[in-house]
Amino acid sequence: MRLSKDSASHSSSIPQPDRQSALLLVDPQNDFFPGGAMGMTEDINLIPAIDTYIKHFSRNGWPILATRDWHPPNHCSFAEQGGVHPTHCVQGSRGAQFHTDLVMPPGMMVISKGTDAKKDAGSGFEGSSLADRLEDLDVKTVFILGPATQDCLKQTIMDACKLGLQVIILKDAIGTETSADTFKEIFQTEAMQATASDLGIKPT
Fold first, then answer.
1. CB-based contacts of 16, cutoff 8 Å, min separation 6
2. Measuring CA to CA, which of 2, 96, 174, 201 is 20 to 30 A from 153?
3. For the whole model, what pTM was predicted?
4. Strand ranges across the sheet with 109-113
5. What is the mean pLDDT of each run of 10 residues along the chain (204 residues)?
6. Domain definitions of the chain by residue range
């Protein structure tokens, strides 16, 4: 079942997490939540949903990885450098930190991207060790969520599919900044969609 805004998910057709699964948090950083440089007001509602998934995967001992934009102050994506984005997720800044209301588990793997001032990197796989880390963990299925839907989440989903991973988009824990064109691009992948109830997860 491909991602669709209109179709309903059915738990019987959704792969359930197991020891070859990982939860992938795409850039859950302060700057992508309300009050941050690129935050959307509605996305504050994502915090409880993200925490529910973190707790579920942590409780079962399944891997959890988080990507983060980790930009130098003169990064090429910033408007003052001729880019299209406001200054965000500068290395060491508060905006680059994971949202303070999220309960990150001990031992979570953190993957930095966008560290080269002259090169943008929306996907969590671009110029990073993410693919190698997933291979080391023998991960076959990634359950993906995150606030920055329009760019980083979309590109990460598409790259994960290209790598042959089974991709499950946790649609109740993704950002609201999603255009029709973004959905169209994701429709063309083999990504599936799911919610917490599809996975038998109860809110905590």
1. 199, 200
2. 201
3. 0.90
4. 109-113, 64-69, 21-26, 141-146, 166-174, 192-194
5. 40 85 97 90 84 96 97 96 95 96 93 96 95 98 89 91 95 76 70 93 78
6. 16-199
